[in-house]
């Protein structure tokens, strides 16, 4: 398995899903209690940035969850 190719494919799929979110739906509840679609999206993007930074040898800027939703426990 080519891990990089699998990761890039997952990113493409995630981007495709995000493009299908209708305007006005971003603040609707997600399947994660207390989280909106926007919250979950922010958490995933934050996680990607964290992993990319760690791969470059950078210290995390924050150890909390996604910005603005650090008190939530998702999924």
Characterize the structure shown:
With 75 residues, the chain is mostly helical. Helices cover 48% and strands 0% of the residues. The longest helix is centred in the middle third of the chain and has 19 residues. The two termini are 27 Å apart. The relative contact order is 0.13.
Largest sheet: none
Count of helical regions: 2
Q: How widely separated are the two ends?
A: 27 Å
Q: Classify the helix fraction into a percent range.
A: 40-55%
What does the oligomeric state look like here?
A: single chain
Morphology: flat
* Structural class category: mainly alpha
> What Rg, in angstroms, do the CA atoms define?
14 Å
**Proportion in β-strands:** under 5%
Strand runs, count: 0
What is the typical, i.e. mean, pLDDT? Answer: 82
Uncertain parts? none
Order of helices and strands: HH
For this entry, give a set of tags.
75 residues; mainly alpha; 2 helices; MDMPI_metal-binding; isomerase; Maleylpyruvate isomerase N-terminal domain-containing protein; DinB/YfiT-like
Summary of the model, kept short:
This protein is mainly α and 75 residues long.
């Amino acid at each position: 398995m080519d891990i990089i190719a699998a990761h890039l494919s997952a990113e493409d799929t995630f981007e495709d899903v995000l493009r299908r979110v209708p305007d006005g739906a971003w603040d609707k509840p997600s399947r994660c209690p207390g989280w909106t679609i926007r919250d979950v999206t922010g958490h995933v993007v934050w996680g990607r940035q964290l992993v990319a930074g760690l791969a470059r040898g950078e210290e995390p800027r924050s150890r909390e969850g996604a910005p603005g939703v650090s008190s939530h426990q998702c999924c």
